[in-house]
Every structure is written in C-alpha cells, then in structure tokens.
Amino acid sequence: MKRWTFACAAILMGFVGSPAMAGPDADWLLGRPPFEWYITHGGIYALQNEIALLQAKPEADDDFKAPIIARARADILRLRATIEPAQWRWPAPCCYSRRPIYLR
Description:
It is a single chain. This protein is mostly helical. It has a domain at 33-84. The protein has four helices and no strands. Helix 3 runs antiparallel to helix 4. The longest helix has 21 residues, at 35-55. The chain is elongated and about 80 Å long.
C-alpha cells in the first residue's frame, strides 16, 4: 500500500511541475489571467473613468472635452486589441450544445 501511495504521489508531482505547464498559457490553464492582463485591464478601467468624469462635468466646454474623450476611446480600443480573449474551461458543455426541449 505504501508503494502505491508513493508511486501515485511521485506521478502527481511529476505532472504538477512538468515543463508543459510553463509558458504564457500556463496562467490561463491554472484559472488566472497573466500579469500583463491586469495592467492592461487597469489602464482600460482608468480611461473609462476619465471619460465618465469628463461627461459628468457640465461646466466644462464640449470643445474641450470632445478631443480628450475621442482620444481616450481610441486608446481603449487599442488596449482591448492587445488583450487575448479569455479561454474559459467549463466543467459542463454549453446549453446550446444539447438537444432542444419541445413542450406539448
């Protein structure tokens, strides 16, 4: 019994620390986005807050706000293009993959 426990533990440790888990996809496989994603997401969030604050300021002139908002929106689109889409792994298949239910 001890041999089987040791063998299973050794095999498990071999898979956990294997080089196949290294690389840029390792973070997504482990269920967390890479560090660069957090930085980019924070930048997008800050730009969206800047746009919201400028739009909520009634005393500011529209000629002053318009170029700033346009530039911030262009920066958001540029930052979104650098982020890879999320690669979620679901334990169950999507609801669209099952057969439809017909009611009488």
